Amino acid sequence: MHFTDLFIRRPILSVVVSLLIFLVGVTALFGLPIRQYPNLESATITVETRFPGATQEVMQGFVTQPIAQSIATASGIEYLTSISTMGRSQVKAKLVLNADSDRALTEILAKVQQVKYRLPEGAFDPVVAKITDGASAVQYIAFTSDQHSPAQLTDFVTRVAQPMFTSIRGVASVDTFGGSGLAMRVWIDPVKMAARGLAASDIAMVLRANNVQAAPGQLNGGLTITDITATTDLRSLDDFRDMVIKTGDEGLVRLRDIATVEIGAQNYDSSAASDGKRGVIVALTPTPDGNPLEIVKGANSLIPVIQKSAPPGVEVRSTFDVAHFVVRVRCEPPCGVCGIAGSLCVSAIARTQTSGKRDGLSAAGGFDGYGAASKVVGRGEGPAGGGGVQAGDRGQGCCPAVRGP
Q1: Helices 11-31 and 334-363: crossing angle, nearest 10°?
Q2: Which residue from 128, 87, 133, 131 is spatially nearest to 108, judged by alpha carbons?
Q3: What is the per-residue pLDDT across 230-249, written as a single tens digit (0 to 9) for each?
């Protein structure tokens, strides 16, 4: 007796088991996620510190080394790497596979706060961030224009587009390439400075002294309260150009006399272009559990909205996304697929039972629907002693017999 004989004798049980397997398969079809790679969390914590004007030796000895020694005692770290360049220090802590990155980030942040007082005066506060290892951007979006500079495009991307892309589920960071924020640029003429006996440090000191944010407070009277407003900052190009740098017997030396003042970018170290037009490229980086298909779908739905709010002459379009390389398994329409699967199940059950009936008939004289064979007994008159056949008693697997007079 084989295992399949149970389903041949019990067709209702066969149908129930087949439908159960079918329902489990349909549930799994709609519940399985569509991903390009397995869901593994491999993260790195970065600590970046800037100290404008500091040499590589100063950054290595007084910034990188204290931070690296402090965070090395945190749990969940596999190894540390550091980079020290002119005015910049970066320490990377690689976490073990599938470690709790949020917990490690909190612990490393506390370690950095413990040694922040040891950093040199003038160094910026360390910036601690979490990045995903091996995760490239899932989509690149270009902002190009013939009428606006990259600094102006960066300002629009930072204020409008970046918060919208960050709100997409599964997006870890929105990075910009080829642009820089707006800044007041002061281009100093060294010849004019030398002729007036000035140095770059003198101009920096005057800028810090004349461009401050003051909080004067309030005046409280018997029945009135008056807010005090002090205009101690510079708000226009003319305010910077008219700033007095030096006074003496020869008169006033203003900033316009020794420098060119304009609104430009914070730095000009990098640039980007799309289809031959200079612009800003935005990259969407996913979280360890982010689904690339959902991110691309959400970003494509936001591009028309951003285009409507963009300044005249700005073009917003997607230049690359990974959705084309991810296999999408779809069931359209679900009812049609379910019907085909159900027909195949019924056909398989019918073929199985037909095969069982044929096997029973080959071993017996008849088949009564319950797997029992019948014995046929003949009795009658004829030339050979038997001319009639009639059904006799039922038997169990006996061959048919003919009895004469």
Answers
A1: 150
A2: 128
A3: 777 788 888 889 888 888 77
